[in-house]
Amino acid sequence: MSKKASFLLFIILLLSTMPLPQADALGIGPPSFELDLQMDGSNSTTIYLLSDGLEGKLIIGKENLPFRVEPSQINMSKEDNYRPVELTFYGNETLEPGVYEGMVTFIAQTGGFVAVGIKIRAKINLLGKASETQHDERQELPNIDELGDRAEHMQEASEEETEPEPEFETEYETEPEPESQEMDYTPYLMGGAMMAVLVPIIILWKRR
Predict the structure, then answer these.
(1) pTM of the model
(2) Could you tell me where the DSSP H helices lie in the chain?
(3) 103 vs 2, which has greater pLDDT?
(4) In which region does residue 64 sit, left (phi positive, over 0), alpha (psi from -120 to 50) or beta (all else)?
(5) Where are the alpha helices (DSSP H) in 112-170?
(6) Which residue, of 18, 43, 52, 193, has the greatest Cβ tally within 10 A?
(7) Residue 110 sits in a domain of what CATH number?
(8) Number of structural domains in the chain
(9) Beta carbons within 10 angstroms of residue 38's beta carbon
(10) Cα(80)–Cα(96) distance, integer angstroms
(11) Sheet strand arrangement including 81-90
(12) Quick check: is 79 in a domain?
């Protein structure tokens, strides 16, 4: 047997004895996500890693997504069971606002070999700049002076529309007190005096 054939046989035997990771040893979830992202800002989403017996590095990349994502790689361990991993995307001010769809890729490397790769769908809604949005919101807020003028105007209008309450003046009609009439007792006094004089005269006259 030639040296070349012996070397190839040795390589084949070496590869056959190496434990190869199974394709289903890596799990990434959820299978898709949607994210709002401002042109000059950043936003994050969380994926979950399931590593069944794999130990090494997980390389994170993207396809058809013009945005920077971090982290670019993480370390895997055999104990990773639905481990949360936060992915942060950064806006791109050279793009137009709109919807961008693509893939986020996850490639597991163990022992210097690519074990398995997984892709999940991503939908990113690119919005305008955060500074412009805040500026528009500030413009929509009414001025403090305008609020004062409006309040004063509303107060004047309410005072004009409000009818004054009628003033109730209670008048008591008092009946006039009857005038006291003073009785004239002079005739009675004169009559009594005359009787006092006449009665003794009459009595004396009858006795005669």
Answers:
(1) 0.53
(2) 3-17, 130-140, 144-161, 186-207
(3) 103
(4) left
(5) 130-140, 144-161
(6) 43
(7) 2.60.40.10
(8) 1
(9) 20
(10) 39
(11) 26-29, 42-51, 81-90, 68-70
(12) yes
Strand partners, 81: 50
Per-residue pLDDT for 149 more than 90?
A: no
Q: Can you tell me the mean pLDDT for 35-54?
A: 92
CA distances from 54 to 19, 51, 81 (A): 12, 6, 11
The b-or-e profile of 13-37 (16+ CB within 10 A means b, else e) is eeeeeeeebeeebbbbeeeebebeb
Beta bridge partners of 69: 89
Work out the average pLDDT over 125-144: 65
Rg (CA), the chain: 57
How sure is the predictor about 141, in pLDDT bands with cuts at 50, 70 and 90? low
What is the Cα–Cα distance from 124 to 44, expressed in whole angstroms? 11
Residue 8: the pLDDT is 60
If you average pLDDT over every residue of the chain, what do you get?
75
- The beta strands (E) that lie in 67-142 are given as 68-70, 73-76, 81-90, 98-110, 113-127
Whether pLDDT at 147 is above 50: yes
Paired tokens of 141: 């807020």
Q: Is 27 among the domain residues? A: yes
Q: Which domain holds residue 56?
A: 19-133
> Any idea what DSSP says for residue 31?
S
pLDDT at 183 over 70: no
